[in-house]
Each structure stands twice: as structure tokens, then as C-alpha cells.
């Protein structure tokens, strides 16, 4: 994507916010681009600097790997979706939610999911803070009806995502620095976990219960429990909080 098209992003984003805001009330909007497990670029945001630190900077540091919206985008879902429709059964009591997502102080997040070419995707998220309350039934029905138009406009504006180089490299002192990119399968490589144990870790951190993780893996719940005990023993931890702490350590996440 050339520099001229990148410069148009704020104009498109603001126009989209103005148009959607005439129909439904929301507090924030952000557009992230997703490309597998690589760090997602923020294509547009309405946050203050302090809010951006939580919603964008901290998110890009690693929590995006556990985000239901990220997973849905990578799985190439399309249309309008509410967080509650995509989140695992224990998402709202997970350590990820307590340690990171709760900092956003959101009552609800909804999104327009837009698959692009070459396994890329973007998500235009609308957010309402706890002080505003969640989106109402009439709001979500209207947004769902508007989804085809929003998706078409996003595809016209972003037929492809900006290159990783243009969004993840910054010049500093005349040198170019590249941000690390995480591959989910490689996060636990140094910890001697089996492929099954890595899968359990990923599901547990996302907020899947033992039973739902077992269904995802097509094994018995008891097998997941055994894997979980072995993981905790290998990592020298005793709880999901300890597991998230190790995840945060590995990806270099520093709480705000």
C-alpha cells in the first residue's frame, strides 16, 4: 500500500465513525489489521494517548494473541459479531480478562469482520464503556443490517493491509528497528512442552474451560486435566495466574 493510501486512513476512519455514529451511539472505534499471528497494525483509532496505551500499545505487545476478535479474524469470519458471541465460555473469568481486558473498562465490544486477500483480514471495532452500558438489541440489529455496506467500504479502502515493514518498523537515530513478531506455535518452544500441552496452554489462556477445551481437542476432559497438571509442573506454577504471568514474561508484556 503506497503512502498516499496510508494517509487516507484517518479520513476514511473519521468518515466511518461519523456515519455509524449517526445511527448508533458508541464511545470508541478502532480498526486493526490481522495477518496470521503477526503483530496487528492499528489502521485507525479514536483513543486519547492514555487510552491508546491500553487499547493499542499493550494489545500489540502480546494480548492480541488471546483476543477472540483476533482468532475470529484469522479464521476468516465475516460480518457483524459481538464479543459475547465469539468469546470462550470462561473468557470473562479468565486471567487474560482480569489481567488485561478489564483495563479497557468496556461494557461491550462489537466488530465488523472483513476478510481480505492473501489470508489477511481487518476488524472495525465499536466499543461502549461501562459508564455507557452495552449495545441494545435495536442497536445490534441495525449494525448487523449495516454490515454488508461497512464491509464493502472497508474492502474498497483496504484491498490489502499495509506492509509489515511500513507498520512495524520505526526509524530511531538513523537506524531502522523492527518489532518482534510472535508465532503462537513458537511462544512456548523454550519450555519443553509437547504439541498437545502447547494447545492446552493456548486454550486455557484464551478462556476455555476444561470441558470446552476437551471438545476443541476431541479428547476426554480428564486428558486435558492431566495435560494441565503436567504443564504446571514443568513451568513451576500452580494456577492460571501463574500461566498468564509466564505468557506475559515471554512476550515482553509490561502492564500499564
Automatic annotation (TrEMBL):
GO terms for molecular function: DNA binding. It holds the Pfam family GerE. Keywords: DNA-binding, Transcription, Transcription regulation. Residues 186-251 form the HTH luxR-type domain. Coiled coil: none annotated. One of its GO terms (biological process) is regulation of DNA-templated transcription. The keyword Transcription applies. It comes from the Bacteria. This is Helix-turn-helix transcriptional regulator. It comes from Mesorhizobium hungaricum. The lineage of its organism: Bacteria, Pseudomonadati, Pseudomonadota, Alphaproteobacteria, Hyphomicrobiales.
